[in-house]
User: What shape does this take?
Amino acid sequence: MTLSIALVTAADIPAHKKPDEQHLVAALRAHGFDCHEAVWNDSSVKWTAFDIVLLRSTWDYHLVPDAFCAWLDQCVQHSVRLFNPPEVVRWNMHKSYLIELAGQDVAVVPSQLLPRGEQTQLADLVTGKKEIIIKPAISATAWHTRRIGAAFTEQDQVWLNQRITELDMLVQPYLPEIAEHGEFSFMFFNGRFSHAVLKQAREGEFRVQSDFGGTEITYRPSPQEITEAADMLRTLSNPPLYARVDAARVDGKLVLMELELIEPQLFLGLHDQAASLFMAAIKEKLRQ
Assistant: This one.
């Protein structure tokens, strides 16, 4: 029997922006899956028609989180087989999970939550710190992310005042190690390590995303690095179908920057077996 799978995306994302899909679709179709791309907020889509609904490039969810959560509710109501599961997605949407993981002895970049509506002075945030990063607690692709130094300006304060009126914000120390050495991404399928990449920012930039000129190369981690990255996932009650562990190396050890469990790029084209391993993990979930 042919199984149908929906690859969930956002509207108006061109194919060249989704390099994972061509590799994944080829692997899935080679093993008998019927693949369809579907926009998450397209009301005409009948999600129960699919055997599996797989979140892939819903890269606008952070702009309308309430609507996205309502869609997750509908998936639960109609028993849609969504991966990753709605409860995992909800937990991962708000970056306060980093504070939660820190409380469970996970090596996490220090993070402070600034609740929406609570006015904060930058002078209180940069005291004793050279530079900080401020970003929304629900965000993607460095959206509304700002690097602020001790010599901040009035414009920086105005920017924060505007953001915090509407959004929960997160404060973290600026890590020069990322600009100097890059950020590591470790891909796991069903809790098993698949492959890794090193993301590097362009000169003069602190953001590693390709939207800001960043590049990615294949990275061969040491067994110790794989163990450290895997440890960052072990607080989850069940291994998710897919997970991307983004980490920086600080003082010789990995520190978690983000745990990507919703719509991460998985860099399937940078590892020969990655798409096949992902496909095998999907089939394993179907058997469970």
Observations:
- The chain is about 30% helix and 25% strand.
- The chain has a mean pLDDT of 93.
